[in-house]
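Checked the freezer inventory, then went back to the computational side. Two predictions to log before the end of the day. The first one is the construct we discussed on Monday; recording sequence and tokens without edits.
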Amino acid sequence: MAEPLKNVQKEIDHLYKQHFGKMVASLLRFSKDIDLETAEDLVQDAFAAALSLWEKQLPDNPAGWIFTVCRNKALNKLKADKKFLRLHQAPEPAPELVSPAITFSAEFPDDEQLRLLFACAHPDLAPKVQVVITLKYVINFKVATIASLLGMTIDGIDKLLLRARQKIREEKLLLIPPAPEAMQQRLPIVHKIIYLIFNEGHTSAEGKELLREDLCEEALILNKAILDSQMGNIDTLALYALMLLNAARFKARFDENGELLDLEQQDRSLWNQDLIKLGDYYFHQSKGSLLSSYHIEAYIAWLHSTATSFATTDWQTIAQLYKQLLPNPFVELNYAIALYYAGEVNNAFTLLHNLQRSPFMNSYYLLNATLGKLYMQENNHAQAAVYFSKTLDQTRSSAEANYIRKMLSKLNL
């Protein structure tokens, strides 16, 4: 029986979102003779084939079907290239298959996902390039999402990806997992990737949902896999603690109608005490002589999670901790908020207005929403309205937009 086209399109859209990046990364591992652009083209061709063939009947294992087509297209490409060389050039050795036993399964096990992260963290690429190509090709984030996470423009990310493709192609870099002894060298980049995955889940730049627990769970699973494999270090422990402590507050971030709640409005009885205890355990396990940014952020999350109320939160300590993470525009925003609640109102507003000089930050939803809220708390409702109105054009989800409309409705104008 023919499958309705809308069902086929829905299935393909889901698979594309979940597996496109993994397929591209796996083809790069499959052979050194497949470059990044070729891998992308092969995967796109496989999805195009699915769109034309699945209308007749969906396969029992759709993801496995596409993985198999990707593999077959890759093999055909390698054979065709070999034939071309044989006809037009001096004899060349057959393409070297880096991992001839590689399998393309419908469900990527967590350790396979982790290997792909380590594979893209190639030391011959700049750290930012490693982060971007991993988010693009393994995690399958959109360019706009990556730009938002890294505080860059979309054009900047596009250019970075173009240069990365050229470098990988020209230098024939192999994006394959390193030997066990080289894992530690790549661990900081893998930590950064996991951190950004969790951040995107916590406050998503994609789609209508502000909170994507699936991404947060993926980040936690990847981090736990590092710990279980004995590859981790105290930074891995601190990152795990940070994510657990932040995840503990998820259920209290929205009311029964799905409306976004500020920290001071949250029902703390809804905070997951089991996750807080687990986060506390890993936070204390992470102590060492050299502390990372994850330790500092975990300490901040711990202070929030263990405070009995918003009023009793140790804002002065939180401000000093954020100060240690400067310079970073996102950190500076949080630093200013902490200063405000620590009683340093003028310093807080000075920092916030200085951030507006950055074109990126001036168009950043949270900066203008923060200015609106703090001016509202200072009873300057006219200024609050200016920033809340500006924010409405910058929101990325219905929850954010509804929150801003609610704040505007409270102003006495």
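The second is the one RB wanted added to the comparison set:
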Amino acid sequence: MFRLNPFRKKKKGLKNEKSSGFNILRNDQVIQNQLEIKIGDVIIRLLRNNTSQPRNELTAIIPRAEIRRKFYNNGHFTAEEEIILNSITLVDAPSHGSEKNQGF
């Protein structure tokens, strides 16, 4: 039902370079962040491509999902199904600075 692949590299490149405390990837490398969730027949996909390492959180929040299905046999109602999901949260927090760098 859930598929999370936060760091799928699309292209191979050279090693990271350090510059001013940030991880900088050379131009020939792309990082792909992807969040995907399938609920019933609905697919929600959030895709992000970066040439530098993302420094912020990637979050998908679905507060409530309701799926209702009715089943019929020869035109007559036979059964009903109800699925209720609450507070679905997907988070990709790829990099955090050290506490020393954030002033804590």
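For RB: Residues 25 and 89 are 29 Å apart (CA to CA). The chain has no helices and seven strands. Let me know if you want it refolded.
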